[in-house]
Amino acid sequence: MFVIQEELKKLPNSPGVYLMHDKNDEIIYVGKAKVLKNRVRQYFQSSRGKSSKILKMVENISYFEYIVTDSELEALILECNLIKKHSPKYNTMLKDDKGYPYIKVTVNEAYPRVILARDMKKDKSKYFGPYKSVSSVKDTIELLHKIYKIRTCNRNLPKDIGKDRPCLNYHIKQCSAPCMGYISEDAYKSQIEGVLNFLNGKYTDVIKMLEEKMYKASEEMQFEEAANYRDLMYSVKEVAEKQKITNDDFEDRDIIAYAAEGNDAVVQVFFVRNGKLIGREHFYLKLSPHDTGNDILSSFIKQYYSGTPFLPKELFLSEEIEDLELFEEWLSTKRGSKVKLLIPKKGQKEKLVELATKNAEMVLSQDKEKVKRQAERTIDAAKQLFELLGIDSKNDYRIEAFDISNTAGYQSVGSMTVHENGKPKKNDYRKFKIKTIVGPDDYGSMKEVLTRRLEHGVKEKNDDSNFGSFNRFPDLIMMDGGKGQVNVALEVNEALGLNIPICGMVKDDNHRTRGLYFNNQELPIDTRSEMFKLITRIQDETHRFAIEYHRSLRGKQQIKSILDDIPGIGPKRRNALMRYFKSIEKIKEASIETLMEAESMNEESARSVYQFFHKE
């Protein structure tokens, strides 16, 4: 159990991002902090001065987690990425990336420029950032122009060389006038190399030069000029602050690092998509006495990537592993294109691996008991379930659960949720709009959903080049119902030549799960066990997912009525029925004779309505 007051004591004195979760594991708020310990504690202290929105949010916090960063700037950028990805309920949405400036060097041009950009584009330029301060970026660009005499004009060079007079910047010695041919292309590019070195963090000499000029101006009583040098120096330091949260190569990659102590290890995975760090996950492992770092990473890669539907182009590892080329070949086959396993040794990429390692160490040292409790709630509970049913698994206990939602048969939809090792795997969730069934037929709808899901999986299995989202079959299918729903699933299973274990979640008179229906018998379960709690979470999550999808479709098609699907009922009779009965439920409950009392209704049309709502 997550005890908030106890977890607050473990918060580090570090910058980072914190994520607040509700009881359904949904992220309801994302925030950044210069010091995590101070910021997160404030939410759970006196309510004085807090807005009603924050007070409401705190009431719904079930637990929190955090990601440590090396600077407040990194926390800011990561916060923005996570809010965009999760759209938390209590966040006022941040501005998009155009609110965070970049420094752009147009290295694709013969005579490159250094300019401010509001977003990154795939235009062969080099980008640095994003940064939190527009003014400091502008000051730095101005400084670079002064030091390296880079052009600011938009002239087409070298085509337009000598076609016009040099601009004012040349006369005030802030431009080398490539527009007049006063500097060769090679000499100009040498200046650009200096710019790139500076923006890559090699700025010590520039800082020293500014500091010397500041002191000299001060000694000469030129205090305004000294203040200008001081401000420029501050801007340079701020812009040159290293950050690793966003990369300008737009690649998808996973960053994998670990921390180990005794028989315990935590593997931390950072997910970088389109060049942005958008999330992380950690995994708790039990070690054998002689397991090495190679054993930990190799075992994790085999287990995790054997089932995930998405494989990035690159995996960054914290250390070398054996059979690296063999792993690359295996993963490339699954992805359908080249996958590289890399061990960064320098620069920004190495720093990102170090950050993942740092977070793994913190989870292991501060949250060891919490991770173990989480394992009991998830993987241990899943293991108990599979042992109860006598099912062998491939170490990741993949469960797919299905449910149907509709309003009196109208706009029927199906939901599929996925849990691996007892944890929801939301990227694998799927929605189904029922296509072949008309009216309230849950069994028929469920048969369609299962057939579409499993047929798709069979097709992908038979297509070796297709690593699709349905390729991985579950170790267990759970139906939101008893014998009837299970028999439907078994029928589909048999028709497709599959042998996937299927069980039903049997409910009592209060619609609460009381047992499992498996192999033609009902198995009782201990309602106090973690296994029972896991089953309940799976059932609730599948039901929630179906209802939310159904509501979204209903909201988009409010003008359509279920009555439109009944043969012989056009707009005139539909409106007459609604005027007379006021609701679909009352129409559904009415007899044929009562239906005929509505205007325009005859016996044939009344019978058609009655039969639609009372199918066997």
Brief description of this entry?
With 616 residues, the chain is an alpha+beta fold. The chain has 20 helices and 19 strands.
Q: pLDDT below 50 for ≥5 consecutive residues: which ranges? A: 93-98, 555-559
Number of strands: 19
Q: Using only CA atoms, what is the Rg?
A: 31 Å
Mean pLDDT: 81
Looking at the overall shape, the CATH architecture of the largest domain is 2-Layer Sandwich
Give the count of helical stretches. 20
- Biggest β-sheet description: 8 strands, mixed
Structural class: alpha+beta
Q: Spell out the CATH superfamily of the largest domain.
A: UvrC, RNAse H endonuclease domain
- The end-to-end distance, rounded to whole angstroms, is 47 Å
Report the β-strand fraction as a percent range. Answer: 15-25%
CATH-derived topology of the largest domain? Nucleotidyltransferase, domain 5
Helix share bin:
40-55%
User: How many independent structural domains?
Assistant: 5
The general outline is: globular
Word description of this protein:
It is a single chain. The chain is 43% helix and 19% strand. By secondary structure, it is of the alpha+beta class. It folds into five domains: 4-94, GIY-YIG endonuclease, CATH 3.40.1440; 102-239, no CATH class; 253-366, Nucleotidyltransferase, domain 5 (2-Layer Sandwich); 385-556, UvrC, RNAse H endonuclease domain (Nucleotidyltransferase, domain 5); 562-613, DNA polymerase, domain 1. Strands 12, 13, 14, 15, 16, 17, 18 and 19 form an eight-stranded mixed beta sheet that branches.
